[in-house]
Amino acid sequence: MSVDAHAEVTIDRLRKDVAAVMFDPRCDKLWIGGLVNAFPLTAGLLRKGSRVEHGGDFLSKRFSSMIVVTMDKPGRSRCRLTNRLK
Domain range spanning residue 52? Predict the structure, then answer.
């Protein structure tokens, strides 16, 4: 089963300040609703090859997923994530 989602939020902060939170997997629980655990499997900010294991609740169901960064374009877009549900 595949689920596509799109969300957009305007944040009144400098891009670098937002990026410091968005691309630090230790902060994932701050901005991802339903997320209970985030386990970075690679050190540092997200970049190509980074992996993070997520666990949480969505629609009253437990889930776990592996986030894999498959693309990184500094200065344009930081990364593309592939979410593999287990």
Answer: 34-85
- With a cut of 90, say whether residue 8 has pLDDT above it: no
- Mean residue pLDDT across the chain: 81
Q: For residue 62, what pLDDT is reported?
A: 87
Domain membership flag for residue 53: yes
| Overall number of domains in the chain | 1
Dihedral-angle region of residue 15 (phi above 0 means left; psi in -120 to 50 means alpha; beta otherwise): alpha
The token duo for 44 is 């540092």
CA distances from 38 to 13, 25, 57, 71, 76 (A): 25, 7, 13, 20, 26
Q: Is residue 5 part of a domain?
A: no
Q: What is the pTM assigned to this prediction?
A: 0.69
Is 40 inside any structural domain? Answer: yes
